[in-house]
Specification:
Strand 28 and strand 29 form a beta hairpin. The chain has six helices and 42 strands. It has a 22-stranded antiparallel barrel. A five-stranded mixed β-sheet has the order 3-9-10-7-8. It has a three-stranded antiparallel β-sheet with strand order 4-5-6, covered by helices on one side. It is 7% helix and 60% strand. The protein is mainly β. The two termini are 54 Å apart.
Length: 747
């Protein structure tokens, strides 16, 4: 062959070979989100978003906010008690869970706002994806979300028959049974059903009483139905969860100097994941809900209505110190001693209604307009009890104080959000939200030692006749009412190329004021807490590289915060020596940071995913009255705002003679975090966790068998800490757990 033709032919052959190889190499999955009520590639949405797909959820066993926080570095999680979770996104958190306060992080389940953390449930087997939206979200959702939103989307029923069942057995007597069924019951009616059972023995033991703490017994079920009519789809959802657990197993870790509880804890046999409280606690909660959604196609768009109801009941009682109060015990005589028992009985009834119109308009302009209404009633009885435990008497109450609060929140809003394509490269996004919130609360505060007061004498839980700690020294009954309103705009500019989208955005977030939980005096009960406001300034990029085998997303943000709501324990007018709980506002604070997420498909058998958040937070103006006098906390970092957080996940897929092996290794890190402003020795420890999984998939993919281990290094760590009179009390995180899961997917 002539050299004249050999070089072009060789070049063409190489190009064809390279193209064939490229076609064999998989590309990164296109993740579809509906954060803007349109099916969009997540790479085209100018919101800092982390999306957990159904595969992520299943492989990482994501069933609660703790597991979300491991995967999304911008999210921080701590748990004071089951149903009393402390979730932060970008350092924004609600620490007061009283009935007259709101959450900074909004949770939506298939479009239904879940107002209280006790009502949130992620343990559903049919989740399609979880969208974590960071920063203020107000122009697209029914309820304003000042810190961010967790948007949970379950699988839509379809005509195709699909089934899944799995069983797990592991350490700590772990048992999990899961089932899912989807299919058609008529030509235009489709439904699905998922059922889940999760159990394990205690991760923490009370060595003084010989009982388990931090166990789990959860049953959840969900069904979803789709009725397709001419031009209209009707979706019905219903879910139910029952969750029963033991005490949290709290442990003294730092003394305040009045008594050496840390040494006492060690003397009685306490240590890592071991508590020595003389009393035992429990947690029981149920959550259920139903909703109807209609979607009617119109000539220029879609008209949607969503009506939802939710009911949640939560009751728990937990030991507060983790060791006998002032060392008062005599084990030889069968006397275990006294501990402070924090007891809560809460019920929540919520109704929501939302209507919106999603207009497609033209190819260059689309918009969403909507209206939202919420009525939420929360009744909460909280007791601060001194409980004594002995073999001869059992666990009895020596004295108690009670706060009985009933709050009704009514919220109304209208919102609009538009996308305008200026040309092939530039888009402008703009919107606004008008919100009006009203809260009406009744508060009954009782010190049960004041038996001469008719309010005490006539209240059925005030039967001890003894004194208590004086957290609630005054007895009173009082009503309070207040309203707040706000306008929250958003503006963003997007620049699109074939593989890259950059954006700049400005948005305002708002969270209404409220009334603090467990007020110790009339003034605290009737003084409204100021509403929060934040302006978020953000620059971001979303990009795909190497023929869609690499992805790099990053954002830089700066948040100017006003009146961040915080709760602290300190001196009060009625009890300057011991103190009570008070909710107040940080006048001003700032949060800035960098978020990076990256993915790389190295080849057909190996991929890497990583995420990193660097955050700096600072209190600019905040003064508190403490037992030592006025304390200026300006310059402090915000609570649950770790400076560095990151995760790294390695996945491999190896074909073998009989099927395929899948391996996953993930590493998660969060820096140390403060969890109390006054006593800044109250900290959540830095966390480093390694999880691993190895699974076999049959050739037909009908069977899967996975060996998994969490907390591979068996790190023992404090997952949450709080400060009370005796000192700093810690809650232990989960130790190493391991097990095997078998999954059946009939074809």
């Amino acid at each position: 062959m002539s050299p004249k033709y050999s070089l072009p032919l060789l070049t063409a052959a190489i190009a064809i070979a390279l193209q064939a190889q490229a076609e064999q190499v998989p590309q990164l999955e296109t993740v579809t989100v509906t954060a803007q009520y349109r099916a969009q590639n997540a790479q085209d949405v100018s919101i800092s978003t982390s999306v957990l797909t159904s595969d992520n959820i299943r492989q990482q066993d994501i069933h609660d906010s703790h597991n979300i926080a491991l995967q999304v570095p911008s999210v921080s999680y701590a748990e004071f008690a089951p149903g009393q979770a402390l979730i932060a996104i970008r350092g924004i958190i609600s620490a007061d869970d009283g009935p007259g306060m709101d959450n900074s992080i909004a949770v939506f389940l298939d479009g239904i706002y879940i107002g209280r953390q006790a009502a949130a449930n992620f343990d559903l087997y049919d989740i399609e994806r979880i969208e974590v939206l960071k920063g203020p979200q107000g122009t697209l959702f029914g309820r304003n979300a000042i810190g961010g939103a967790i948007n949970i989307i379950t699988k839509t029923p379809s005509a195709e028959l699909s089934q899944r069942a799995s069983a797990t057995k592991g350490t700590y007597n772990t048992t999990r049974l899961n089932g899912y069924l989807n299919g058609a019951v008529a030509d235009n009616i489709f439904g699905n059903l998922s059922v889940n059972l999760r159990k394990h023995d205690g991760y923490t033991q009370n060595v003084l009483l010989g009982v388990d703490n931090q166990d789990e017994d959860t049953l959840s079920a969900r069904t979803r139905w789709l009725l397709q009519l001419d031009g209209t789809d009707i979706i019905f959802n219903a879910d139910y969860t029952s969750d029963k657990r033991g005490d949290m197993g709290r442990t003294p870790i730092i003394n305040n100097g009045t008594y050496d509880y840390v040494a006492l804890h060690a003397t009685l046999g306490g240590g890592e994941n071991k508590t020595t409280s003389p009393i035992d606690g429990f947690s029981e909660r149920t959550a259920k809900g139903a909703s109807i959604e209609t979607n009617t196609q119109m000539s220029g768009g879609k008209f949607t209505t969503i009506t939802g109801i939710r009911q949640t009941s939560s009751e728990w009682a937990m030991a507060s110190i983790g060791a006998p109060f002032n060392g008062g015990y005599d084990l030889d005589a069968g006397v275990f001693g006294i501990d402070v028992n924090d007891s809560i009985d809460e019920s929540i009834d919520q109704q929501t209604f939302e209507l919106r119109y999603t207009a497609t308009g033209t190819s260059t302009f689309n918009y969403v307009i909507g209206a939202f209404a919420l009525r939420e009633n929360t009744s909460r009885v909280e007791q601060f009890k001194l409980d004594r435990n002995a073999i001869s008497t059992g666990q009895v109450t020596l004295g108690n104080e009670i706060t009985d609060q009933n709050n009704t929140t009514r919220s109304y809003a209208i919102y609009g959000h538009a996308n305008w394509q200026l040309n092939d490269a530039w888009n402008i996004v703009f919107g606004t939200r008008l919100t009006r919130d009203n809260k009406s609360i009744t508060t009954l505060s009782l010190n049960c030692g004041q038996q001469e007061n008719p309010l005490v004498a006539n209240y059925n839980l005030c039967d001890s006749g003894g004194g208590s700690l004086g957290v609630l020294q005054r007895t009173f009954a009082i009503d309070s009412n207040h309203s707040w309103q706000d306008i929250s705009p958003k503006l963003a500019l997007e620049h699109h190329t074939n593989n890259t989208m950059t954006y700049a955005s400005i948005s305002k977030g708002f969270k209404s004021g409220g009334f603090g939980g467990a007020p110790g005096e009339e003034q605290t009960a009737t003084t409204p807490i100021k509403p929060e406001n934040v302006w978020n300034y953000e620059l971001g990029i979303k990009s795909d590289w190497l023929n869609n085998r690499a992805r790099l997303n990053a954002s830089v943000f700066y948040m100017d915060y006003t009146n961040l709501q915080v709760v602290h324990f300190g001196p009060s007018v009625a009890n300057p020596e011991f103190g009570s709980f008070t909710t107040t506002n940080i006048d001003s604070s700032t949060i800035s940071g960098i978020e990076v997420e990256a993915s790389l498909l190295v080849n057909a058998f190996f991929d890497v995913h990583g995420a990193f958040t660097l955050m700096d937070s600072e209190v600019n103006n905040f003064k508190l009255e403490t037992f030592a006098g006025e304390l200026d906390l300006s310059g402090s970092e915000l609570r649950q705002a770790p400076k560095n957080s990151y995760s790294l996940t390695l996945n491999t897929h190896l074909p073998i003679q009989y099927g395929e092996l899948h391996g996953q290794l993930s590493y998660h890190h969060k820096d140390e975090q403060i969890s109390d402003y006054i006593n800044q020795n109250t900290r959540i420890e830095a966390l480093d966790l390694i999880n691993a999984q190895l699974s076999w998939h049959s050739p037909s993919e009908q069977w899967q068998c996975a060996l998994w281990v969490k907390n591979l290094s068996d790190k023992r760590y404090i997952s949450h800490a709080y400060s009370i009179g005796p000192g700093v009390i810690g809650i232990w995180g989960e130790p190493r757990t391991a097990g095997v899961t078998v999954t059946w997917l009939p074809r």
